[in-house]
DNA sequence: GCAACATGTGTACACTGTGAACTTCATACA
DNA sequence: TGTATGAAGTTCACAGTGTACACATGTTGC
C-alpha cells in the first residue's frame, strides 16, 4: 500500500517517526525528541514506537544518523569546483571548504548539530543511584536488531570521511608531507568541531552569524597552517 | 553551630548538596545529578533543595562553577616553572601547558568535564510541544526576573582566563605578533576544547590515555604553530 | 477460511522536577 | 522569660516521562 495512514496500520511509521524527529530537533534541539512527543505528533500511541526502535536512544540515534547524512550533503555542496588550476591550491581549498562547511552547518542548523553529536547523551536512563558505589557495567547496546544503527561511530560518519579525503588530497598534492599526515585528522576535527561547539552552546552563541563566520575562517586558516 | 546534621536543620545544606553533586557527577556524569538523587544522598527531602537553589539547573550551574575552579587549579599546577631561561620559549611552554592541562583534566575527570560544559543542557524542561492552539488554563507566571542566573559564561570561566593570559604572554615575549593576537583565543580554545570533546564522547573515547595524550600533544603543537 | 504474524493500543509502574501548605527550630525583641 | 517572626526542612500532590505487559487489529501465506 501507499504511505497513507488511513487505517489502523500506519504504512511506514518508522519513516514518519524519523521525519517528525527531524522536524522537532530542527527547531528545538534534542531535548524536544521525547518518545511521547514524537508519537503524539505523528498521531500514534507512545508504545507504537517500540515496534520500530528498541528504545528512545535508538530513535535518537536513527535521527542523528540522518542528520549526519544531511550534514555531509551540505558540506559536499560547499566544495564547489575551484577556479584555481594549481592542484596545490585546490587541495587547500578543498580542506578549507570541508572545515567551513562543517561550521556552516552547525551555525545554520544548531538543533540538528546538537542532536547529531549530543543527542544520545541527553536521553540516558537513570540507574537507581544506590548508595554503594557501582562500576556501571552498562554497555547494553540493544544488539542492533535492525539493519542500520550506527549510533556512536563518529569516525565512520560521512563528515569525517570527507575530512579524511581532503587530507589525503593534501598529501597527494604535495602540500602536506606524508610523515605529518597521520594524526592530522584529529587536529582538524578538533578545531572545527570545537569551534562549532563554542557557537552552539558556548560563548559565541549569540554573536551575529557573519561575525561568527569571520572567526571561523580564522580558525580554519590557523589549523591548516598548523598541520603543515 | 558546626556543620552537623543532628537536628531538624541541617547546618549547611547548600554546601552539602554541592559536595554531593560533585561526588555524583565525578563518577557518573551530569545525568546522575538529579534533584531527588542528590537530596536522597544527603538524607534530606527533595524540596529542601529549593531553599538554596531556584531549580535543578541552578544546582547544576553551581556544581559546574566549582568544577571550573578545580579545572583551573589543576591547569595552574600544570604550569610549573620552566627551566628554559629564554622568555620566548617560556611563553610557548606556558601556552602549551594551558592546552595540555585542559585536556588532561578532561581525560582524567570526564564526568566533571561533561558536567562543567554540558551539564545545564542535559537538564532542560520541556514545553508541551503542541504547536496547535493552547487552551491551557491560566498559568501563574513565576516572573523570576528578580535574581540573576547566569550559568553560561564560559568566557569568564577561570580556564579561559588562563588561556587569555598565556596568549598575552606570547605577545609580550614577541612570539606572537600583535595584529594576529585578536581572535587567537578562539583558535586555541576550539582546538583544545574540541579535542577534549572527542575524548569524552567522541571517537577517541576508549583509547588508552597515553595514546590520547600523544595525540593531544600533536593537536596543541599544531594550533600553536598555526596561530603564528 | 483460517492460522500465524506484524503492528498499533491501553493500562500500569517507577521514576522525575516542582508548586503549595505545613512543621520545626533558632533567634530578636518585649 | 516569654513570644512573634521567619528561615529551613517536610509532606502531599500533580503533570510528565520511558517502558513493560497484555490485548486488539489488520495483513498475509496456506
Explain how this protein is built.
The structure is a homodimer of 228-residue chains. The first copy, chain A, has eight helices and no strands. Chain A has 228 residues and is mainly α. Chain A has a domain at 64-120 and 149-227: Tetracycline Repressor, domain 2, CATH 1.10.357.10. Chain A starts with 12 loop residues before the first helix and ends with a helix. Residues 126-151 of chain A have low confidence and may be disordered. At the A-B interface, helix 2, helix 5, helix 7 and helix 8 of A face helix 1, helix 2, helix 5, helix 7 and helix 8 of B. Chain B binds a DNA duplex (30 and 30 nucleotides) through loops.
Search tags:
homodimer, 228 residues, mainly alpha, Tetracycline Repressor, domain 2, 8 helices, 59% helix, 0% strand, elongated, DNA-binding
Amino acid at each position: 500500500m501507499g504511505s497513507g495512514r488511513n487505517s489502523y496500520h500506519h504504512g511506514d511509521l518508522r519513516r514518519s517517526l524519523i521525519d517528525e524527529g527531524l522536524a522537532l530537533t530542527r527547531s528545538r534541539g534534542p531535548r524536544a525528541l521525547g518518545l511521547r512527543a514524537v508519537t503524539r505528533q505523528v498521531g500514534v500511541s507512545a508504545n507504537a514506537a517500540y515496534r520500530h526502535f528498541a528504545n528512545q536512544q535508538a530513535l535518537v540515534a536513527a535521527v542523528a544518523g540522518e542528520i549526519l547524512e544531511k550534514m555531509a550533503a551540505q558540506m559536499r555542496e560547499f566544495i564547489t569546483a575551484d577556479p584555481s588550476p594549481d592542484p596545490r591550491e585546490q587541495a587547500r581549498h578543498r580542506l578549507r571548504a570541508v572545515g567551513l562547511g562543517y561550521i556552516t552547518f552547525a551555525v545554520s542548523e544548531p538543533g540538528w548539530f546538537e542532536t547529531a553529536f549530543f543527542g544520545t547523551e541527553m536521553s540516558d536512563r537513570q540507574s537507581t543511584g544506590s548508595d554503594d558505589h557501582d562500576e556501571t557495567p552498562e554497555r547494553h547496546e540493544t544488539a542492533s536488531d535492525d539493519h542500520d544503527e550506527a549510533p556512536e561511530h563518529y569516525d565512520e560518519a560521512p563528515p569525517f570521511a570527507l575530512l579524511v579525503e581532503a587530507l589525503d588530497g593534501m598529501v597527494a598534492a604535495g602540500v602536506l608531507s606524508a610523515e605529518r599526515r597521520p594524526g592530522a585528522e584529529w587536529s582538524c576535527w578538533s578545531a572545527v568541531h570545537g569551534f562549532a561547539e563554542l557557537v552552539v552552546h558556548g560563548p559565541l552563541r549569540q554573536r551575529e552569524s557573519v561575525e561568527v563566520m569571520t572567526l571561523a575562517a580564522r580558525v580554519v586558516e590557523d589549523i591548516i597552517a598548523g598541520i603543515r
